[in-house]
TrEMBL record, chains A, B, C, D, E, F:
The lineage of its organism: Bacteria, Bacillati, Bacillota, Bacilli, Bacillales. InterPro entries: Ferritin-like, Ferritin-like_SF, Mn_catalase, Mn_catalase_dom. Belongs to the manganese catalase family. Residues 264-284 are annotated as: Disordered. This is Manganese catalase family protein. It comes from Paenibacillus artemisiicola. Pfam families: Mn_catalase.
Amino acid sequence: MYYYKEELINKIEVDQPDPAAAKVLQETLGGQFGEMRTMMQYFFQSSNFRGKDKPFRDLLRGVFLEEIAHVELVQNTINQLLNEAGGSMPGNEAADAAPLNEAIKHANPHHFIMGAKSSLPVDAGGNPWNGSWVYSHGNLIADMLNNVVLESTGVLQKTRIYEMSSNKAFRETLGFLIVRDNAHQNAFAKALEALGVEWGKLFPVPNYDINKYPECRKFVDMGYHNVQFNFRLDDTRIGEVLYGKSPSRNGEAFTVTPPPAGFPVPQLPDMPNEHSPGLVDMMN
Amino acid sequence: MYYYKEELINKIEVDQPDPAAAKVLQETLGGQFGEMRTMMQYFFQSSNFRGKDKPFRDLLRGVFLEEIAHVELVQNTINQLLNEAGGSMPGNEAADAAPLNEAIKHANPHHFIMGAKSSLPVDAGGNPWNGSWVYSHGNLIADMLNNVVLESTGVLQKTRIYEMSSNKAFRETLGFLIVRDNAHQNAFAKALEALGVEWGKLFPVPNYDINKYPECRKFVDMGYHNVQFNFRLDDTRIGEVLYGKSPSRNGEAFTVTPPPAGFPVPQLPDMPNEHSPGLVDMMN
Amino acid sequence: MYYYKEELINKIEVDQPDPAAAKVLQETLGGQFGEMRTMMQYFFQSSNFRGKDKPFRDLLRGVFLEEIAHVELVQNTINQLLNEAGGSMPGNEAADAAPLNEAIKHANPHHFIMGAKSSLPVDAGGNPWNGSWVYSHGNLIADMLNNVVLESTGVLQKTRIYEMSSNKAFRETLGFLIVRDNAHQNAFAKALEALGVEWGKLFPVPNYDINKYPECRKFVDMGYHNVQFNFRLDDTRIGEVLYGKSPSRNGEAFTVTPPPAGFPVPQLPDMPNEHSPGLVDMMN
Amino acid sequence: MYYYKEELINKIEVDQPDPAAAKVLQETLGGQFGEMRTMMQYFFQSSNFRGKDKPFRDLLRGVFLEEIAHVELVQNTINQLLNEAGGSMPGNEAADAAPLNEAIKHANPHHFIMGAKSSLPVDAGGNPWNGSWVYSHGNLIADMLNNVVLESTGVLQKTRIYEMSSNKAFRETLGFLIVRDNAHQNAFAKALEALGVEWGKLFPVPNYDINKYPECRKFVDMGYHNVQFNFRLDDTRIGEVLYGKSPSRNGEAFTVTPPPAGFPVPQLPDMPNEHSPGLVDMMN
Amino acid sequence: MYYYKEELINKIEVDQPDPAAAKVLQETLGGQFGEMRTMMQYFFQSSNFRGKDKPFRDLLRGVFLEEIAHVELVQNTINQLLNEAGGSMPGNEAADAAPLNEAIKHANPHHFIMGAKSSLPVDAGGNPWNGSWVYSHGNLIADMLNNVVLESTGVLQKTRIYEMSSNKAFRETLGFLIVRDNAHQNAFAKALEALGVEWGKLFPVPNYDINKYPECRKFVDMGYHNVQFNFRLDDTRIGEVLYGKSPSRNGEAFTVTPPPAGFPVPQLPDMPNEHSPGLVDMMN
Amino acid sequence: MYYYKEELINKIEVDQPDPAAAKVLQETLGGQFGEMRTMMQYFFQSSNFRGKDKPFRDLLRGVFLEEIAHVELVQNTINQLLNEAGGSMPGNEAADAAPLNEAIKHANPHHFIMGAKSSLPVDAGGNPWNGSWVYSHGNLIADMLNNVVLESTGVLQKTRIYEMSSNKAFRETLGFLIVRDNAHQNAFAKALEALGVEWGKLFPVPNYDINKYPECRKFVDMGYHNVQFNFRLDDTRIGEVLYGKSPSRNGEAFTVTPPPAGFPVPQLPDMPNEHSPGLVDMMN
C-alpha cells in the first residue's frame, strides 16, 4: 500500500506565466517518454515480476515510487507556468474584451478549456497519454533494456525542451529531472552489468556536458546523478543490485540513500472568472 | 512524496486459471471507468486544486492514494487468473503441439504475447488506457459530480462483470472493490452534501442488494462501505468533510480510519518457456 | 431544425439472441463504412456546402436525413440480437453460477459491461467510431466520388456480414440496408452523371445478384433500389438532379418519393439483474 | 424517422474572419463535451432505453432532437469564422505570394487542407470526435447523472471559450448555447428530482452570473433557460417529467414549448482557388 | 524482394528554414491522404490481390514502388525546411538564451523534441499515421475507385497546402507530387475505363489549371502527368492496362517509361546541441 | 529509388485454413513490435540521418530494405491461413446457411469484412498500426539501442506466438523471422560494439535454445542468424561496421552477403461469393 507526505521532491521556482513553455513541458508529463510513462511502466513491471530475484523487483518498484513524485512535480510546474496567463482576471469580466485572446495564441487551448490553467495528461502535441506505451514483457533483460532507452530518451528530450524557454520554473524542473533520469539510467544499466554487459564509454546517453546546464549543477554537487532514493517503509533488497561504480564515465560510486528533504506544494489562487474552484459563497 | 509497504489491500484467492475472466477483468484495471482512471483522475484533481478549501483537496488526494493500491490489487488478480493457463510449460517445449492453442481461444492474445501471462494497461476490449478519460476541470462541483458518476459506473460495471465467471480470485477482488467504490461514491456525495445537495433515496447507484454478492458481505460487516482509509504520514483535514451520516440509505455514520492490515504480494513462478524472467543461469 | 415521428424505417424481426451476430453487425453501425459514418459525412458535407447549386446540397442533406433513421434501425437490431442473451435473468441472481459466462465467449464484452445488452458506437472489432473518417473536402466531385465509394463499400461489407449468421433479425435489417445503400450509390452516381461520367457497365459495385438475397427481394419489388425518400417538411430541389434512368444496369427510372410507412420502435424489457433501467420501487 | 425544415435554431452574426476563434470553437462541436457528443449520447440512450417509463425516454429523445440543430448551428458558425480568411482569393492565384501563410499561423491547418475553410468533426486540439465518449449504460440514474455532468461541463467550457475572442459570430452562438445547456442541465436535474434528489443551492453548475454575458440576456428574457423545445410530430409524454419549478435557484417554472422561429441557413460563396465546390463551367 | 539505388526521384531545392511550412507539409507525408497512405494501401492491395488478372496486380504494385520514393522525397523536404531552424547552434549552448523559443511558435514541437529537426510519421495536426486508413477490400473495382479518390484528394490537398508558403523547397516538392498524383489518378482511372467507365469531362479532380503552378510546368513539359514509371527488375504486364489515351481531358497518350534520372540524397550536418547524431569523439 | 523482383524472401507452406492463427500472426505484421514497425522505423532513421558516418546510415537503410520483404512475407502467410476458411464458397450462395458462422468464432472479423480473407495493417488485438511507434530521435546511440530492443522484442513475441498453433504456414514464417530478427539484433549490437559496448553473455535476447524450434534449424545451418543481406544496386559501406565476431555467444563471424534465392509469390483464387476480385464477366 502507498503512503504520502505532502512535500514536493524539488522546489517550484516562481517566474512569469509562459503558456508556450507549459505546452511543450507537457511532453515531460504525458508524452511517450515522459514521467507518466515511466511511472506506469515500472508499476506494471514490478507487479508482473516473475521469479525469485527479488532485488530486481525492488529496483523496479523503487524507481516507480520516485516517478509518482516526478509526475506531481511536473504537474505543479505546468500550473505555475499557466498561472495568471491572460492576466489575473479576478472576477466575472466576461463582458470585457477577450482576456485570453493573446494567451491561447501559442498555447494548448485545452489548458484553458479543460484545465483551469492547469496540467493535463497529454503530450506537447496535445495527444492524450496512452497505455500502449507501457512496456512490460516479463523478460527481465528486455524490460531493463527498454527502461535504459526510456530514461536515455527522457534526458535527450529534456535537453531539447530546455532550449525552448529560459523561464526559471521551466528550467529548474528540467534541470532536476535531467539529473534524476541520468541516475535512473545508471540504475538500470547497473542492473544489466550484473547480468554481463560492459557499457564501455557509452553512458550516459545522450553524451551531454553537465556544465552547460547551470540548473543541473547543484544537483550534481549533491551527488543526485549517482544515487537511488529509497521510499520504502519496510525493508528493500535493492542494494544487492545497486552498489559499486556508476556506469556513467565518471568513476564515482552508485549508492542508495533516503529521499531528499521535501518542498512545499504550492497553493494556487482562486480564479472566479474561470469558475474555479466554484465554491464562492456556498460554503458560508 | 510517496512511500510504500509491500502489502496488498486485500487477499488474492487462488483458483483455476481462467483467461476469459482475465480478459473481462481488464475493464476494471484499464477501462474508462476502471482503477487506473480513478487513480489518475484524483491525482490530477488534487495537484490542480485551486483555492483555500484544503479539506476538499485532502479528500481528493486521500482517495487517490487508495486507488494506487486498487490498481495493484487488480494487476495481481489478473496475473493469478492467467497463471498456468495452457499448462505449466516448465521448459522450452516449442517442438511439441501448440500449448497455447486452446488458451488464446477466448483470451486477449496480448496477455500471452506482450505480458508473460500478466496484466496490461488496457480494457476488456483490448483498447489501451487513454488520458482523455481524466476529468479535471478545476470546478470543484463539476469535478465531484463527475467523480460520483465515475464511482457509480465502477460499481455498475463490476456487478455486470461479476456474472461472467464464478472464479474465486475474480469474485473476491470484485466483491472488495464493489464495497470500496460504494464507499468512495459516498465520500464524494458527502462532500457535495456539504455544498447543498440532498440525495434523498437516490444512493447508492446502482441500487444493488448487497446480500446478492456473498463476497461483499464480510467487507460490509467490517463497515468498509462507510469508511475512508487514511494513507497520510502527515496531518490531513479530510475529516472536516467526511463525518456524520452516510449518503447511502442505511442510516450509518461515515468515518475516517487507518488502512486495513495488508496481505502478502504473491510471487509468480518462473516461466522458462515464455522466456520470463529470462535470467536463467546467467546470475551464477 | 429536425423533427421526429416515433417510427422505424423497417421492421425488427424477432429471433433467438445471437451475441456473435450482434458483435459483427456493429460494423454496420459504428464501422468506418457504417451508418454513423454516412450520417455524419453527409451532415458535414451539406452544412459545409459552397456555391449556388442548391439541388446538390439538397441531395446531400436528403440522404443524411435517411441515414439518421438507418442508425436507429441498426441500434434496435443489435438490441434485439442481445436481448435475453445469457437467459432472461429476471432478478438479482448474482450468487448463482455465472449466467453470462457462455454469452461473452464470442461476444463484444462491452455489450454487457457498458451497454445493458445494447448497442454501442463501435465497429465489429470494438474500435470506437472516429471523426477522422468523415470526408468533407468541399470539392463537390471529390465529395461525391467518396460517397460512391462509401456506399459501395457499405454494400460490399454487408454482403459479407450476411454470411456470418442466418438470424432473422440480422438478415432482415441487412437486406433492407443493402437495397438502400444501392439506391444511395445510384443517387450519387446519378449526380456525377450530371457532371459528365458514363458509368457504363460498372454499377452497382459490388456486382451482386439480388436474387441470392431473399430478404432483399421484397424491397426490390417495391422499387426501393431506385428511389430517394424525401424527409423534408419544406420544399426541396433534389429532383433537379435525381430523375431519368438509374445508373445501375437495370434500365429503370430513379425517382423521389415519400418515406415508407413506419414500423413500431420495440420496447425492451426491464433487466433488474443488470440494474437497467434502475428505477425499481423508486417511482412509487 | 427524422424530418427537416431548412432553418437554423439561432442566427449567424456576420463579423470578420477569425481562424483562431474557429479553432477553439471546434471544442463546442467535436470535443468530448461538445454538441456531437450530446447528440450521439442521447441518441444511443433513447434507442437503448429499457422498461416502461416512456416519459423518460421521450425526455432523452427530445433533447437529442435539439442537439442535431445545435451541431448544425456550430458548423455554420465555424464556417462564418473561416470564410474569407486569407483574403477572398477569387481565382486560381497560386503563382502569387502564399495567401494562406498568415491565416494558418494560429489556425487548425486542417480547416484549410481538408475543409474548404469549413468545420470538421474534431476538437480544439484537432483530435477527432470519438465514440468512446458516449455514455449509455442503460441504468437510468447513472445515465442522467452523466448527462447533468455533460451539460454542466458544456456550460463551463463555453464560459471559458467565450473569453478567447470578442468576435460577434463566435459570441452570439456561445451565448445561445450557454443558455440552452443550462436548460438541458435543468431538464435532467428535474428528472432526477422525480427520483428523489433535492439539489439545494447547487444548480446551475458552474455558478455563473448571466448578467456578465450580454449575448445570453435576450435568451433569458425569452425564458430559454427554463423551457424544453418540442420537435415531435407525434405525441410525447415528456411533460410528465418536466413541469413545476426549475432546479436552478431562480424560482421559475420549467415548461415544454414549441421550437423557436427559425433563421436562414447561410449560403457560402464559391472559392475557385480552393477548388470548392469544383463545378465551374461543368454544369453548362 | 526490394532493391535500392541511393537517388531521390526529384531534387531538393535549398531555401531558408520554415518550420511552419514543415508542419503543414507533414500532411503530405503522414496524413490520411499522404504518401505513406498511398504507399501502404497499394502494398496491401497488391499482396492481397485475388484472381488471374495479373496486369492489374502489376499496376497496383507498380504505383506502390514509386510511392516509396515519394515518401523518401517528402521526408527529405521536411528535413530541409527544418534544417538550421533556430540558428545553426553549433555547440552545447544551453546556458544561453533559449534558441528554439521562436522556432517552436508556429511549429510542430515534436519536430524538435522527437525528430532532431527532422520528419515524423504524422499529419499536419500532429496525429500519427494510422493503419485504419488503408483501404484493401479485395474487390478490384471498389479498391480502384478508392484509389482514384485517394489520388484526387492528394492533388486537392496539395493545391491548398501550396498556398501556405512560397518556400522553394516546399513548392518544388509539391509541384512534382501534384503532377505525379495526377498521373496515378489517370492510371487508376484508365484501369477503370478497361472495366467500363467513361469519365467524360470529369478528370482530373480537382479541375486545376496547371499553368497556375510554375513548379509543375517543367514536369508537364516532360510528360510526367501521363506516364507510369517502371521500377521492376523483372517483367511486368502493366502495359496491358496502361495504353491509349489519358483519361485527363488533354487528348494525350498514357505510357509506361523507365524512372527518371535520380538526384543526390542530401547529407544533413551534425547538430551537437541537439545531441544528433551523438557520436562525437567516440569513433576515434 | 526502389526496385522490385517478384520473389518472396522465404516460402509459403501450404496447410489447412486457421483463422485463429491468422489473427494472432497479425501481431507480427501490424503490431507495435512487428515488421511494419521495423520497416518504417529504419526508413525514417535512414532518411533523417545526420553527419558523415555513412556506414551507419547504410546499415539502417540496409535493414529497412529487408523489412519490406518481411512485411510482404507475413501478408502472404496470413492470406494462406485465411484462404478457404469457411469452405471454398465458389459462388453466390448467400441464401444458404451462413458459411462464415463458424469461421469468425475465433477470428478477427475484419479479416472477412474488410479484407477478402486477407491481411490487414493491424495487430493481434485488431488495433491499427500507429505512427507514434516509430522511434527516430536522431541520436544514433539512442536509435540503435531502441533498435536492439525492437528486434529482441520481435524474437520474444514470436517465440510466444509460435506456441499458439502448429500450422505449417504459420511456423515456417515464424521460424524464418526469428532467425532474421536475431541477425538484425546482432547487426545493431555489433554497431554499438563499434561505439564501446561489450555485451558479455547477454545476447541474444531472449536467451532461447534454437534447437527447440525445428523450423529455425535449416536457416541456422545456412548461417542466416549471422549475415546481413545486401539489397543495394549501388555501393554500400555497411561492411565497415558489420565484420568480425557476432555479438551472440556463438563465436561465429558476422558477414554481409547477397539476398537468398527467391520464392514464388502465391496466386490466390477468385472468391465470387466475397465479390473478390469482382471482375467476373466484365473483362470479356
